[in-house]
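From the thread on structure requests for the teaching lab: each student submitted one protein with a one-line request. Submission from student K.M.:

"Model WG repeat-containing protein from Coprobacter fastidiosus, tokens only."
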Amino acid sequence: DRDEALVKENGLWGVIDKKGRYIIDPQFEVMRNDGKWFQIKSKENLWGWCDLDGEIVIAPRFEKAFGFFDGDRAPVLFEGKWAYIDRKGIVVIKPQFDRALPFVGNLAAVWVGNYIGFINREGRYEINPQYNGLSRDYEANAVWGISCYERVTTGKK
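Reply posted by the TA:
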């Protein structure tokens, strides 16, 4: 259990300890607990991460971002396409997706146009984009439960 809490004051988010003292002064438009770090949204409307002391570990430079929910990759919107970064902020799977979700286990759902596929942590397709809907369920051991609504076929062989 951690001893801090996210708090909002005058429209900005910060972090207090269990005695109500600020650990990180309110300075972020949005702040989310991301396990090891905090995901932050700057006043410039860009996403990044800071550590538990408020030190920036990944500078806010992404248009949108999800957290490092399952380890070492986070999806980020970068130059109009979704990519994945590592915990150093380095793009490890290049911007190429129209939408992307965090990894659960070793797979992440990605959209190419209207079609959904699944990539592994190296960015290679395990399931090519071919579905037009999905539902996901997280189980206690963090694995995908996938129900694909409709497989899209082109009639091409």
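TA comment: The chain is about 0% helix and 55% strand. The two ends are 54 Å apart (CA to CA).
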